Amino acid sequence: MGSQKPDRRGFLKGGAALAGGLTLGATEPAFGQLPHPHRYIKGTDDLVAYGGRSSFVTSVRIAHPPDNRPSPDAFGLVFHVAAPLQDSVGMITPSSLHFIGTTRGSFVPDIDPREHRLMFHGLVDRPLVFTMEDLKRLPSVTRPHFIECAGNRSSPSHRTVQETHGMTSCAEWTGVLLSTLLKETGVKAAGKWIVAEGVEEVKGASSIPMEKAMDDCIVAYGMNGEAIRPQNGFPLRLLVPGFEGIFNSKYLRRIKVVDRYYMTYNDYGHLDRDPKVAALGYQIGPKSVITFPSGGQQLTDRGFYEVSGLAWSGGGAISRVEVSTDGGRRWADAEIQGTAYRMAHTRFRFQWNWDGNEAELLSRCTDEIGQVQPTRSQVAAYFGAPEGRPFGVPGQDNSVQPWRIASDGSVHNAIT
Amino acid sequence: MGSQKPDRRGFLKGGAALAGGLTLGATEPAFGQLPHPHRYIKGTDDLVAYGGRSSFVTSVRIAHPPDNRPSPDAFGLVFHVAAPLQDSVGMITPSSLHFIGTTRGSFVPDIDPREHRLMFHGLVDRPLVFTMEDLKRLPSVTRPHFIECAGNRSSPSHRTVQETHGMTSCAEWTGVLLSTLLKETGVKAAGKWIVAEGVEEVKGASSIPMEKAMDDCIVAYGMNGEAIRPQNGFPLRLLVPGFEGIFNSKYLRRIKVVDRYYMTYNDYGHLDRDPKVAALGYQIGPKSVITFPSGGQQLTDRGFYEVSGLAWSGGGAISRVEVSTDGGRRWADAEIQGTAYRMAHTRFRFQWNWDGNEAELLSRCTDEIGQVQPTRSQVAAYFGAPEGRPFGVPGQDNSVQPWRIASDGSVHNAIT
Lengths: 416, 416
Hints:
The structure is a homodimer of 416-residue chains. By secondary structure, chain A is of the alpha+beta class. In chain A, 13% of the residues lie in helices and 28% in strands. Among the domains of chain A are: 117-271, Sulfite Oxidase, Chain A, domain 2, CATH 3.90.420; 287-413, Immunoglobulin-like (Sandwich), CATH 2.60.40.650. Chain A contains 10 helices and 24 strands. In chain A, the strands form 5 sheets. A 5-stranded mixed β-sheet of chain A has the order 7-6-15-10-11.
C-alpha cells in the first residue's frame, strides 16, 4: 500500500520512486531541443498597472451548490460561491478565488470608502464613529485566518473538493484589533455581548460574546496585501477567527454593545431544541481535507506522488495531521508546512508511492487544544443521525473526507 | 518629538492621543444616521468565477524609473515596473502588483504549460527533462520570499516610496526545492556552479554556486496560492532567496551544471575592477523602508499615527527594526509583526504622536546574522563616492531612507 512513512531524504535519491513513477527523459536531450515559444503577450498600460493571469490558467470559483442559482433579478446570479481548492497551493487563497457566502446574492454593495463609517454605540462609555482614515491611523495587526461557512460539507452527490469543501478560504488579513476600538469607546459593566452589522440588506449580524470581542477579533481593511475585495466586504470586514463564517460581517458599519444575546436573522442556523446542535455555530471544529489527489483528478501512472491538503481549526493552531492510504486502517504523520498559525489553513504534505491498486486516502488533524477531527460515523452518532448519513443535519460536519483512487487512477468521493 | 517607546496598551486607553489626534464623533450619533449605500455591483458570471477589486481602489504599478519607456515597437511599453509600496499592508505583495524586472520589456512570453519543459544537463550523472506535470508530483515547499532588483535605490529626484523602493516585492512561493531535482540528476564532482536559463530572448541567467543551489533555491510554479503570473515567469521560475533579482530566472527552461563561473549577459552589473563592487550582486544586504508615512503622503492633523514599513535581508530573517523620528539622533525598537521569515519582507510598526512640528522619520534593521542596515554616508564611504552622493554607483544601495514631515503634514524624500 505504499510507504506510510514520510521520508524526503533518500526517498527520491533511492531512485526507485522517481525512475519508476515519472515519465522522464532518460537520455540526454540534444542541446536546443527544448521548445522555444514564439508567442508573446503584448504589453499594455493596463497590464503594467495591474497584472492578470495566464490564459492557460482556468481555475475558477463555482456556485455552491452548483444548481443554487436563484433568479438574477431577485438575488443576483448565485447565493454561495466555492473556491477551487483542487488547484490550491500553499496557505493563501487568492482574493479573486476566495469563497463567498452571502445572504443577498451576487449583487455586491459598491461602497465609497470616503463615505463609509463605523459606529460604536450601545453600552459604551463614549459612542464613537470612525472614518476609514481614522482606522488606518490606529495600531494594526496582520494575521492569516481562515473563514469557513458552516454549510461546508461533503455529500455523496459532490464530485470534487471544490464541491465538498470549497466554502472555506484563508487570507492574510490586516486591520485594527476590535479590542483596541472597544478600549477606546469603553465598555459598561453590563456590556456582555456585541452585535455587528454590515451594510447588506440582510445584515449579516449575530451576537458575539464580549470575551471573544476583546480577544482576537479584527476590524479588517486589508486582505492579501491590498484592500479587501468587494465580494469579501470592502471596505471593512469583521474577522472573528475560528467562528463560523456568518459571524465575519462584511461591509461592517456598526457595532452595538449589548447586555445579552440578541436574536437576529442570522440565528436561523443556531436555533434548535437540542443544545448540542444549537451550540455548534460558534467554533469551527478541527477539519482537514486532501486537495491532491481529490475527486475528479486523475493519476496518470503508478509511482511517486506528493499527497497534499489543508487543515484548520477554530480551536487554534493545527498541531498534527495524519494520512491514511488504506481507508483508515493505518495512519502516518504528514509533514506540516512552515508555521501553523492559529485559525489559519495549514498546508500538509505526505509522500506516497501509488502501486496501481485501488486505494482510499483520508486525512485527519489534531489542534493545539487536543481536539481530533472525527470520523463520519462519530459525527453521525453525535447528532443521533442514522449511521453513515450525518450530512444534512444542522450545524457543522467536520468529519474525515475519504477519496477513493480507482485502479485506472481516477479519484472519487468515497462517502456514501 | 513624540513617544519613542512603542506601548500599545495604555497608549490609546489614555485617551489623549486618540481624542487629540483623530476626528471622531464625540457625541452619540442618532440611530440610522450612518450612510446607507444604494449602489450595487451587479453580479456577473465573470465576477463569480474570478473576482476583481473595487473601482475605488486605484493603486497601480508604474514604470521605473517613470521616464523609462522605450519604443513600444522595440521592447514593449516599459523596461521595469515598480510596486506601489505606499499602499502595502502586511507581508504579501498582491501578484497583480508585484514588481517586474525584465531585460525584454513588457512583452511577456505566452507559454503553454503542457509544452513547457525543464532540462537538467551538463555535469550531472543523469540528464533529465521534466514536464510541469512531473514537477507537480514531487515533494514541494511553500515559503514567503522577497525578490529585489539591485537597481532599487533612492535618488533625490524620487518623490514616493514606489519610486525609491518599489523594485522589491514579497510573495508566498510554492515549488520543488532545486536540491531535490539535483539529487535526482546527480551532480558530478567537478560540478561547482549552475547556470539557469529562462525563455526570454535575453535569457536572464547568471552563475550560481552549487552551495546555494543545494541550499534553499526553489523551482517555483505557485505564487500567492495560484499559478505564477505571466509577468513573473509563468509557468516556472527559479527562486534564489536573498540573491539579487536577476538570479531569479523567469520562464525557467534549463539548468546546466558547470565547473566554473560562466560569464553571461546578466553579468553586466557584476563586473568591476574593484572587488567590493563586483562582489555585491549575490546577497541583498539588510534593508528597510517606512511605507507610511512616506513621500507624497499627507498627515491630516497632529496626534496619533502608526508608522509602518517593511524590512528584509538576503542574510536571513530580520531580528530587529529601529525607528527614529528626529533624523537619527534617537532610535527606538519597532514592533515586528508575527513570524519574521528568512529572506522575506517583514512588516514593522511603530506608535507615534505627531506634535505638528517638522520631523524626519527613518528606519534601520538588523538581520539574524547581525548585519545592520548602513547609513547613507556609510554606503558612500564604502564605495569611495563623495559623501552624501552614493547613488548611481554600481551594486546595491541598502542605506537608510529618511522621510521629512513638513509642518503642514506633507511628506518628502529627505535624501540630497
